[in-house]
């Protein structure tokens, strides 16, 4: 007869199976945390490059002609607003989401410890029940009632231990699911807010470029430039000492 068929109580402890679940959860949140860090680092690098471009454009815009200066300045302000939103996104990721993931290291460690304690107590009850089951078969009718009563008590205690373990794991999985949903939904919300606000600023920047009128720009540029007239470009008083001027005078005579 196999060990599994020899009694009504299973000897196999749930510790190994549940421990693997907890370890897997710990690794999952750890990887999410690392991915969030990489996302924030990448966003920060992109922000730095965008800032360099914006600074260059800002320095040029204030020196441009007044016909397009306003549009260029507003364009730069829009780009800066986008990068400010990106910085806020980075801060939300590093200050809110990443700590929410990192705290699961301590949670998993605590649950693992509690699980080991409960499983050890459960295994002790299993051994006691199996011992009483064997004793019940060997003892005569004189002690049968007492053994049956003890067995019933131990089975009740074993059921209570199993219930504690199940309650622990249920609470663990519930907390995991709630945090998992909260982290991912918050991440999506952060990105939606960033992209929606960025779209608004980029739309405004695009409109700034459409508002620039070529005719107005050229007119303003030419008016602000010292005009060069034809009379100023051709000498009016020609010097007679010049060979070409003297030749022209001789021909007219």
Features:
rod-shaped; 0% strand; disordered N terminus; mainly alpha; 253 residues; 7 helices
Distance between the termini: 144 Å
Category from helices, strands and their pairing: mainly alpha
User: How would a textbook summarize the main sheet?
Assistant: none
Mean pLDDT: 82
The low-confidence parts are 1-9
Tell how many strands the DSSP assignment holds. Answer: 0
In percent, how much strand structure appears in the residues?
under 5%
Taken from the alpha-carbon principal axes, the silhouette is: rod-shaped
Share of helix, binned: over 70%
- Helix-strand topology string: HHHHHHH
Rg, rounded, reads 42 Å
SS element count, helices: 7
Secondary-structure topology with pairs:
Layout: H1 15-61, H2 66-102, H3 104-138, H4 141-211, H5 214-224, H6 230-233, H7 243-252
The gist of it:
The chain is mostly helical and 253 residues long. The protein has helices at 15-61, 66-102, 104-138, 141-211, 214-224, 230-233, 243-252.
If you had to describe this structure to a student in words, what would you say it looks like?
By secondary structure, this protein is mainly α. The chain contains 7 helices and no strands. The chain has helices at residues 15-61, 66-102, 104-138, 141-211, 214-224, 230-233, 243-252. The longest helix has 71 residues, at 141-211. It starts with 14 loop residues before the first helix and ends with a helix.
């Amino acid at each position: 007869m196999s060990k599994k068929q020899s009694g009504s109580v299973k000897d196999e402890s749930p510790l190994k199976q549940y421990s693997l679940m907890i370890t897997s959860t710990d690794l999952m949140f750890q990887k999410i945390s690392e991915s969030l860090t990489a996302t924030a680092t990448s966003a920060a690098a992109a922000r730095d490059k965008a800032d360099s471009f914006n600074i260059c454009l800002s320095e040029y815009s204030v020196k441009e002609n007044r016909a397009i200066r306003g549009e260029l300045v507003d364009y730069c302000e829009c780009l800066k607003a986008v990068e400010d939103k990106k910085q806020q996104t980075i801060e939300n990721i590093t200050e809110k989401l990443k700590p929410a993931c990192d705290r699961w290291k301590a949670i998993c460690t605590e649950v693992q410890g509690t699980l080991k304690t409960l499983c050890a107590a459960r295994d002790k009850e299993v051994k006691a029940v199996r011992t009483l089951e064997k004793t019940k078969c060997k003892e005569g009718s004189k002690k049968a009632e007492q053994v049956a009563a003890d067995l019933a008590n131990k089975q009740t205690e074993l059921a209570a231990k199993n219930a504690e373990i199940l309650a622990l794991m249920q609470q663990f999985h519930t907390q995991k699911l709630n945090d998992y949903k909260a982290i991912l939904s918050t991440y999506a919300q952060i990105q939606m807010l960033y992209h929606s606000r960025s779209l608004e600023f980029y739309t405004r920047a695009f409109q700034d470029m459409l508002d620039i009128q070529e005719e107005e720009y050229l007119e303003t540029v030419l008016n602000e430039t010292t005009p060069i007239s034809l009379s100023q470009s051709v000498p009016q008083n020609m010097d007679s000492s010049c060979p070409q001027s003297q030749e022209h005078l001789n021909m007219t005579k």
